[in-house]
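User: I'm new to structure prediction. If I give you an amino acid sequence, what do you actually give back? Let's try with this one:
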Amino acid sequence: METTVHNFLKSGLLDKYIIGATTDIESKQVEDHISTYPEIEEEYNLLQEQLELAARSNAVNAPENVLKSILSELDNKPVIALHEPRKRLKPWYSIAASIAALVFAGSSYFLYNQNHELVDENNTIAEEIFDLRKDINENNDKLDNVLRAFNRLNNPETEKYVLRGNERAKDLKTVAYINSIDKSSLIDVVSLPKLSDEQTYQMWANLQDRKVNLGTLDPSNGKLKSVPYIADALSLSITIEPKNGNKINASENSVAEIPIKNKDN
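Assistant: Good question. You get back a string of structure tokens that encode the predicted 3D arrangement of the chain. For your 265 residues, that looks like this:
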């Protein structure tokens, strides 16, 4: 059974299933394995959590307007060809011709106004198409960022560290994802107890002889945040500091700390 589970996980079908890239036959195979092997079900649940975490870093909004049609460009002015009569018409013919001319002139004016409105509408639609293409490109970029974040979280070389608060910040929970191979660090702010307006949470990388400031943590962020990767770091810690910041980590201000593995040594 261990061989079957190992071969299945190594095949990559579970990753494809998570992002919807499997065929119907492959999906059935994955679902059968999930329902049969608890180890595969556990890995599936973990991948779902990681994908959801990565997706939270990018929100995708649908376009406000749906374009129904695209009109062809119209001429700005109608062209009316007038020809001089070759012979004098009888009086009643002249009256009828005058009435017809007035009707034609009125129709031409109406068509001119309608044509002008259609041109304006066409320009508006063209602008909406431009905005729609821009939204599509932005959404594609956001989707690429989600997939890249998911791949980084799912990388076997990525270590996960959960920082939990002490008595001073019991509800604090922050997750750090560190990959020493590609030199990257991500922080997920899960929950931070509320502070006064004069205070803020600050994160540190603790080295043998010094401490490096990794920036403040925003409780309203709710997204994955990239932080500097610090080689040779021995631990991560979170402190409560004054709002204007503090470049020196005071141990009495610490509310969370966790040792980290160091593969650079």
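You can read the tokens as a compact description of the fold. Here is one thing that stands out. The longest helix spans residues 91-154.
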